[in-house]
Amino acid sequence: MVELLESSLRLGTPLILAAMGGILCERSGVATICLEGAMLWGAFVAAIVAHYLHSPWSSIVPCLVGGALVLGIHAFATQKAKADHIISGLVVNLLVAGSTPLLCKFLFGSPTNSPNLARADRFHELAIPFLSALPGVGFIFEEMPLTYLALILPFVLHRLLFRSRFGLRITAAGEDPDTLLSCGVKPDRVRWVALCLGGALAALGGAFLSVSHASQFTRDMTSGRGYIALTALIFGNWRPLPTLLSCLLFGFADALQIRLQSAEMIPIQFIQALPYLFTLVVLVGFVGKARPPSAIGRVS
Q1: What is the rounded CA–CA span in Å between residue 58 and residue 48?
Q2: pLDDT tens column, 134-153
Q3: pLDDT tens-digit map of 47-78
Q4: Domains of the chain: which residue ranges?
Q5: Cα–Cα dist 223/239, whole Å
Q6: Which of 48, 67, 107, 218 makes an SS bond possible with 199, Cβ 3.0 to 4.6 Å?
Q7: Is the Cα torsion angle 193, 196, 197, 199 positive or negative in sign?
Q8: Per-position b or e across 253-288, b if 16+ CB within 10 A of its CB
């Protein structure tokens, strides 16, 4: 059971990072289905930088910048060009999905994957003395650095959104941008900042996949996790702490399907589809009850 919970935490880590970025974007009033693109680009940039500079830590800043640029494209399309938010998000996802194999082919001669990273070029578990030895819960304190960040980030984001001026501006941009404008603050500027920050966080989720969970970038390695993160934040009602729990729940579903693959009586295709079926069930059963920000997706 402890191994299943540990797997749930690790598999939930990229979802948490992406969902926290999505909360920033969507609470500011921008529909962000392009979390998938930001994650995939972050995975690509992190793997490439770690490969050339031989340090996982050196990939963090380029990954953050890359994610901010990806959602910067979305910000330009929705806030400057006044494009439909859903169409813009799909275009960003397709752009990233098409450009990463092209760049991989140019750099390494293979469109499907980057070279394997050496062990020293990847993140590894960082055990906290004494706490990691606690029975039952010690695995929480013997995790990857980005997993620790994913567990702390929702609490930081909760305080930022509900206890700071910047957080109130983000909420106002998504709920009542006209009131925000009457106070002398341009909603477009708030959304630009929120999208760039959100893109940076989502890219960290991708970086976890390529330099922590795996040892290389592979084509389409996010495998729909950006969409699952979007579902998780809807399930969490656009609030950081409930979204943290929903991401861990989705991580548990993913860990469970990996564990069940050894069961010969159940078709492997059905088992592999479990996380996506769970996502569909959550969307069908809960999305109608969730209350999104009032101005989300509004083109003005």
Answers
A1: 10
A2: 777 777 888 899 999 999 99
A3: 999 999 999 999 999 999 999 999 999 999 99
A4: 2-112+143-286
A5: 24
A6: 67
A7: positive
A8: bbbbbeeeeeeeeeeeeebeebbbebbeebbeeeee
